[in-house]
Amino acid sequence: MIIGSHVQMKAPLFLEGSVKEALSYNANALMLYTGAPQNTRRREISDMRVKEAQELMKANGIPMEHMIIHAPYIINPANSVKPEVAELAVEFLQKEILRTHEIGARYLVLHPGSYTTADLDTGIETAIRQLNAVKDIPDDVVICLETMAGKGSEIGFRFEHLARILAGLEQPEHSGVCLDTCHIHDAGYHVEDFDAVLDEFDKVIGLSRLHVIHLNDSKNKEGARKDRHANLGQGEIGFETLYKVASNPRVEKIPKILETPWIGNKPPYKEEIAMLRENRYDPSLLKE
Ligand code: FE
Ligand code: FE
Ligand code: ZN
Predict the structure, then answer these.
(1) Disulfide: which of 2, 99, 183, 273 matches 149 by Cβ 3.0-4.6 Å?
(2) 226-242 pLDDT per residue, tens
(3) 3-state DSSP call for residue 80?
């Protein structure tokens, strides 16, 4: 099972610290932001201890494709209402793609954005235009559009939206999808029949475009379009279904990343990863 979680990236060890954190959870995958997700201030790559991180990954037999980068969620490529926001999206995304490459990672997860006061179609068209404005994508980098919950004016909560965006991109070999179980559940997909969800994904987008799975339970009912993550087994999806996702042979080679909430001031990832690896749900491990 290729399983990991969101990890921190902070001074003094930066990326090396991220890998250490992942190893402390017995993870063989990880995901991180290259800086605060809510702003665009970024450290120089040369300060981030890239080489040390890569060596630690290698020493533990974890391929660099299992280190996922998440673009900051302030990037909104679907915003047609404020051109300066869209412009910032392009500029920042371009830099983030190059950072992903310099780190040696492959998959960069990106929220397709929100149409704000425009409409869904305009949002989708704007996202296509903005993503096509990013010209310099190194060979090894793939932007993974994330399936969204559909809260507010988010686009990308139907597989069809992502298929339309992907079809509009000029560099299809540099784009793919990240599937978030909480988001698709909130968007109305029935995760319990995960094989049927994969069939649908395959029909609409193509399973070969799926590169990352975010494994989260959801605090809300199927179709609620809310986007509030819950710890495994503590939400409306349930542990049994999430285990079925994590162990499904059709997505065996795809990294699963936990983005479940911290419990008190403690990350739950070591416990959640152990529960998945052993297929043994133990709610007492998720108490404060
Ligand atoms: Fe995300
Ligand atoms: Fe996610
Ligand atoms: Zn979410």
Answers:
(1) 183
(2) 999 999 999 999 999 99
(3) coil
Ion ligand 2, residues whose Cβ is below 5 A away:
180, 214
> What's the CA-to-centroid distance between 83 and ligand 2, angstroms?
26
Task: HSE, CB side, 13 Å, CA atoms: give it for residue 268.
Answer: 26
Could you tell me the distance, in angstroms and rounded to a whole number, from the CA of residue 91 to the centre of ligand 2?
A: 23
Cα(111) to centroid(ligand 1), Å: 6
Query: Concatenated DSSP letters for 131-172?
Result: HHT-----TT-EEEEEP----TTBS-SSHHHHHHHHHH-S-G
Provide the strand spans (E) within 23-66.
Answer: 29-32
> What's the distance, CA 7 to chain centroid?
12
Q: Which two tokens stand for residue 7?
A: 């990890």
Cβ distance 72 to 99 under 8 Å? no
| Distance separating alpha carbons of residues 18 and 67, to the nearest angstrom | 10
> What separation in Å is there between the alpha carbon of 243 and the centre of ligand 1?
20
- Which ligand lies nearest to the CA atom of residue 181 in the structure? 2
Is this structure's pTM higher than 0.70? Answer: yes
> Which ligand has the nearest atom to the CA of 70?
1
Quickly list DSSP for 82-113: -HHHHHHHHHHHHHHHHHHHHHT--EEEE---
pLDDT digits (tens, 9 = 90+) for 33-76: 998 888 888 989 999 999 999 999 999 999 999 999 999 988 89
